[in-house]
Amino acid sequence: MYQTFATRIVSLVGDAITSNTIDQDAFTEWLTEEAMNAIDIMNPEMLVSASSTHRFTEAEQLNDVGKNVNATVDSSASSFVLTAHSPLYAKTGSILAFKASGVVQPERVKVISISSTTVNIERGVNGTTPAEITGGWDVFVVLEKSFNTRKFKLLEVNRNGYSANLIPSGLVQQSNDPNSIHFATKRSPSYFIKSGNIHIRPLVTLYEQGEIIGLTYPVVKYNMKSTTDLPIQAEDFIVTGAARKYLVRSMYEEFSQLPAGITKPSIAGTAEELTTTLSTGNTKTDFSDWFEIAGDMIQTDEDVELASAQLQKIGTYIQTHQEELSAKNTVFASALQRATTKYNWFITQYDKLTLMYNEKAQILRGVQA
To answer: Which residues, in sequence order, are CB contacts of 320 under 8 Å at separation 6+?
Structure first.
């Protein structure tokens, strides 16, 4: 049975990490990022074998404006009248279509302006031919269907069996103009991308079919055992890349536990670490007073015996301070040694994973010319 991606990541990183816990959200994020990287570097043959085809047979969505043509106009007319004003959805720039007894008519017109019930129009747009517009026809606003590519690796676009050429979105009008060198025909179609959406010219209608071929960037979850659509070589690359990121985060977490430095015992005031067990009273417990007391004993009281005892106490305190400092230094040195050993392990492991990652990336890229 195949292991989950999370299990494979942990096994690649190794046992030296203190806690190999699985952060579900982080693992899924890393795997998804590496899946995108894998698709972006795949050689063309591998991309084609892993690709899928998205088809649509009707490029138009019709929204009923709720009004009808009031009276018939001929093919040369630049306006027509509606049965009532305020048509739904229609506005300046809208593309309109007409239905007669439920049958969509061939011509498309563009709204130039709307004044009450009168609609001023540009005739025969989107590669259609002007024809009579008959009274009683239903009026519809045409919304063009498109395909979103924001999470998609696009390979090719076809229209009814003919390969479509990519054009800048600024050439859309020329692609509809028979007098332009950029005019798109059924045998020489074009497509453009605007706001992440693919639009095909001429529009796909009736029995025709548009094809968008490519790969959708997948969301790869930590508990999955396969990406389904991607080749096994890509899965190895994805897991290795996610393992590198897991290793780096684990390294930061490991060293965040290391002491910032040696903490020396406090020797100021009445609450220092080495004098808190002494008797109360400032002159007895405050180290900063001890030398002054000894001076008074010698110079003022001329009590050499008490002064000697006081100096002995000071010497004992200093020795204790040095021993405590030495102990803390030993603890820090031991932690630093362990951290250095662990750091060297992390670097060695990261280098191994990087080598594996680059080797698997080369497999995805294929033989370079």
So the answer is: 274
> Which tokens in the block code for residue 264?
């020396």
The pTM is what?
0.70
How much is the CA Rg of the chain, to the nearest whole Å? Answer: 40
Confidence class for position 258, pLDDT limits 50, 70, 90: low
Q: What is the per-residue pLDDT across 77-89, written as a single tens digit (0 to 9) for each?
A: 999 999 988 788 8
Nearest to 217 by CA among 225, 227, 208: 227
Rounded to whole angstroms, what are the CA distances from 292 to 286, 310, 365? 11, 10, 80
Peptide bond into 202 cis (omega under 30): yes
CB atoms within 10 A of CB 310: 19
Which residues are paired to 141 by β-bridges? 63, 96
Number of C-alpha atoms within 13 angstroms, CB side, residue 106? 8
Structure tokens at 82: 């509606």
Rounded distance between C-alpha atoms, residue 170 and residue 350, angstroms: 48
Which DSSP state fits 218?
P
Q: Each residue of 310-330: pLDDT tens digit?
A: 777 777 777 777 777 777 777
Indicate the pLDDT class of residue 286, thresholds 50, 70 and 90. Answer: low
Task: Please give the Cα distance from 48 to 69 (Å, whole number).
Answer: 49
**Closest-CA residue to 127 (of 165, 59, 177, 164):** 177
